Structures are given as structure tokens and as C-alpha cells.
Amino acid sequence: MDKSNFYDDVYQVVRLIPKGRVTSYGAIAEYLGTKGSSRMVGYAMGASGTAQPPVPAHRVVNRNGLLSGKIHFGGDTMEQLLESEGISVEDNQVQNFKQLFWDPSAELL
DNA sequence: TACTTGACAAAAG
DNA sequence: CCTTTTGCCAAGT
Description:
mainly alpha; two-stranded antiparallel ribbon; Arc Repressor Mutant, subunit A; DNA-binding
């Protein structure tokens, strides 16, 4: 598919994240082939708020498993969503992050 | 076209 | 694990 925008690609991958799993911005960026654009992934998420269908941005965290984007969700919306999927969150950080981590480059293979 | 901004990542102390 | 510094790159102005 030509015309594929960077943002659109990001949304596609994020929507592929299985429920109850999480991934990092860098993992998505790497999967897209733009490893250095990890920041752009998060930046794209900012626009995901108006994207349709909605993107499960709450399943995307930084490399530390920290909910770096909960601020943009407003309040503790992000935490609630994660807890709702069976993911334990403490101190803005995903517990068992290493276990819940979902790598598109490996799992989605 | 140039400068600024970011929901990041990796390295160093 | 924490803090600071550096690099990254696309979008908006």
C-alpha cells in the first residue's frame, strides 16, 4: 500500500496488540523500520485520539513499562483500561512488564 | 526552507 | 533503579 503514512502504520500495529499485552514505542518504531523514530510513535498517538477506529494507546508504554502517556488520557484512564484487561499497574508502571511485553517484530511474525 | 516540539531510547555516572 | 545527556526523525508553524 503506497500512500501509507507514518501515523497510519503506527495505528495499524497498535491495533494488533493483543488484549492483556503491552508494547513499547521503540518496538513499534523498530517494526516499522524507523527505529530512531520511537518519539514519532508516541507523537502519532497524540493524533490517535481522533483516529478511527480508536487506537488502544493504553497498551503502548515506554521501554520501562512506565505509563508515560497516561497524562494525555486524562486522569487515570490509562491505568483503568489496563487493569480492565488484566494488567497490573502500580505507580504508573506496568507490573510484569517483561512478561506482558508484546514484540510485533517477533510475535506478529 | 528553517526552527521548534515531542506519549522515546540508549548510554553514562 | 535514578538522573542527566545525546541522538533520533517526522509534523507543525
